[in-house]
Specification:
mainly alpha; globular; two-stranded antiparallel ribbon; single chain; 1106 residues; 5-stranded parallel beta sheet
Length: 1106
Amino acid sequence: MASKPRLTPIFDKFKAFVRRKTPQPPEASNNIVATPPPATPIPPQSSDDDVAPAVPNAPDIPQPPVAPQKAFVKSKMFEKDIAVLSATYVLEENPELKRLIHLIVVIHDKDEEDQLISVLETCARFSVQLASATEAHRAEATEAITVFIKTVEKIEMVQLEGDAQSLDILTSMVDDEIAKIKSSHPPFARDRSFGTSEGLSKEASAVIPVPWVKLVIGGVVSLLNAVTQTRSNYNDMRQIAATAGEFVISCAVICSERTTEPSKELKRALNKFTRTLESIVVECDELSRLNPFWRYLQQNVQKGTLQGIGTRLNTAIELFRTESQVHMQLDIKDLSRKFDYAALNSLPNHPHYVRNEYLGGSRDDVLGYISGWIDKPNELVLWMHGTAGLGKSTVGQQLVHLLQDDDRLAGGVFLTNLTTEHPKTVIQMISKQLGEMHPRAIANISEAARKLNGPHSPLRDYLTAYIIDPVHELKYPYQLVIVIDGLEEWTNHESFLAELAHIPSSSPLKFVLTSRPSHSIERVLDKIPVQQYPLPPVSQEIVERYFNHHFERIDWRGRKPDQQTINRLATHAHGLLIWAATVRSLLSHESDERYPHVILDQILSSEEKVGTRSGEQLERLYRDAIATLFPEPDMREKLRNFLGAMMVLQEALPIRDFARLLGMSDRPAEEIQRRLAALQTRGDFKSDVIPPALQQFHVSFLEFIESTSAEYNGHSIAISSTNAHSMLANRCLEIIFFELLQSPRGQTCAYSELRGVEPYAVKFWPLHLSNGSSRPPSAPSTTRALIDISEENMRRWATLFLPCVAARFQDGYDSLDNIPKSALLYKLAMIIGKEDVTTLSYQLYCLEIAVRLQPINVGMWTALGEAYNRLYEHGRYNKNLDEAIGVFRHVLELISRKSANQGASNDHDEAILLHQKALVLVPAPHPGRSTSLNNLAYALQTRCEQRGASNDLVEAISLHREALGLQPAPHPDRSTSLNNLATALHTRFEQRGTSNDLDEAISLHREALVLRPAPHPNCSTSLNYLATALRTRFEQRGASNDLDEAISLYREALVFRPASHPKYSNLLKALAVALQSRFEKSHLPQDRDEVILLYRRHLRLRRRRS
């Protein structure tokens, strides 16, 4: 008989659970040593406690083969750890659950042909869902388990004998029974586990329980429940839960390594800590239940209460540590070391990358230069920059390798797979590398991990605590080096580089940065002691060596090129190693059936036919390669869609899921991937997985396919990222709303039960749709794509979407009932907004869709602007700041239109509030600050004119003064700021009669007029302003020279303002009024006659225009 297929992972874990619950015979029970928990190994400690004793077997229960148990291991997420430990207690205490799991495993063992595997997987997932019930629903869960056991027993009696129809009937029966249980037991209608219920089962069923921390685990669970129901001070309360959770998890890690009963002293310390935690839980629960109005009135009081609770918690933790160390008589250093390693292992790992092959001696001159620079103590940063394809990443990887061998490396970061990562996360990755390479730094790193646990700690504190201080404490006689490669690909590089300016010259660190030439990088580095190193092209000799080295591995079938041919080929590289690497890949790739020498002749012929100029050879090589790899006309559009989808793909997908996302059959997708491998220069080729394009192709290839020169055989294949996003958005909508949610499964499934590409579509259609369409008013296609979706299905999607955003949404969220489709995305954004910055992108794209559905809703646009502002503050990426400013300006336009139509006074208040927010976004010396200052000042003046509030005018004058100070001569907008301030002062004079205001206004108008000499287009306006201010001073003081000058200025203004100007008649009237004032004082008849003439002209123009 054929051997039974390998067990699926979930059954491996179920069998482990059964093994652990069932006593074993002495002869089969080898002593099991707990697996060491830390990813960073702790030096071994010899102890008899590490070995579990043998236990007699119960003879009536068959024993399936299992993997050994493992000690509890801390993960990256303390909430998940709490859930895993809680689940181990549930499995320990629930006999019905034990019976159910055992029954499923026994049926699987009897199923020799694996016919029932899919049905049993469904049963297993639902079993774990029942096991993850909260304490409040434990009785209902037991009842549901009892009912479900009867369903599983029916499966045991079925004999399929290869009948597919019978299997379908059995599958439907199980699905129906599960649906009935869910409908009659509402608490289990949704999966409430952390991540997936299957994932929780895998971990919980294989973990050795840690009974000594059970009570404190329960306390942390209660704290987390309080966090989920609070509606204010969420971050403060979650910080308390996080502090307690991280400490308890660290205790669990340490206690899981000991199998002996804890001492009385340790139990006493645990009980004391548990009592403190219980009182904290009660207080937090009470605070979380307060009604919104009380919270609004007592916000500061509640915040202070939470701070006091946090202090008590920290005191209790320190007291427990002290007492447990003294009474247990443990080695204090050993205990601290375990805490420290647990903290280090909780830090994020750098993503795996495939190291480029370094050709020995090819860049030794560059490495020698960098080595010499490292030994010079004065400069903090070396910036190596060069065009794409020169081999910067290869040099960076080789440098990391060499520095690590010499114990001079603090960390190495390659940003190709970290393009949107927050600087704090990158700093933690470097810190983890530092601790792994220099263990003496771990104590300081773990201290940083304990102190800097909140989202609001400054980036500078992270850099200091996680890297600079630990390196200082190493006290090496030389500096360590951090290598950061691909800086220009990291959207948050500016905020990180800005912090380097604050590192003192005596720092124990040096930074080697690599990137393509970049003005934004150069602008920030100008403020730092930096050595620039332009990476030169490699010599032709090196390229020849490269070809000679790699050509040895190619089967030339007796036609290996001679040295002269290799020399010709190397000439066309122009020092670009990426060109040489691409040629080598094309020659050796299996998708091209031609002999390698034929391909080589074609490359040489193409290069020599048109001549090679530096900068064009890569484009030509890529163009010819695509034409050769994809000669069929019917593949052209498929290739464009395939590459476009890769360009905007958010996460790697199995190729079949990727094909479904494209609406393409599997075979052409697999064929395109196979052929594109010839152009892959990054990562390991995987025929069954499609990663985002940047992880597979060199950036020069991606720039080529986005350029207008991307064509072959006379047909363009240029890719528009907007069109690619639009294509994926439409496919995501089809997959969710017209395939999944139209099916019976889609009406009841939880997020953890989604299959294939469905999770991707649920998560990312808002992102693709917002990036694939423009904002209103030019986005009708966006709303058209959503018109055919029913209100009910949109709400069903929302229930699948929220659990993928954050784990806490798996335990429930605000009701979405009766929310119309047009407002649902906004509601989701508001729910998500309560989470931390890691969920901000989801909130942002929900708001992007919301404003497309309701394009004149001021509240939605305002929320979108605030989200972009938060994103800017998170990473200091200037593009997000520009987006925020642009959105706020649009909001102001909406308010202005609304105010013009309705005349609502509260619109002025809203406009001022938005202008104030916009001003915060542009601190000095931002070039847009003066404009924002003037805009806010103008809005305040308008409200002053409406309501007469003098404090608005005072603030407006102050703002105009600040704007003027930011525009010294010869700034082109200085004259405008001068007139703005003068006009505001003139208005205050009219309110208060203060002569100094009027005199300053006249002086400012004069300065503005000097800056607008004829024929300046605004010369007439400045003449008019000054004339009007002088006429006002004449009316106050009666000085004839002021009036004479005003008349002269009005006449000059008329000369420079054509009669067709819409305000020409206003100037005629102003001159007439001034002449009439002089006639009344001097009684000159020519003034009277001119007044009459001017009024007649004024009236004629008014009649003509009316």
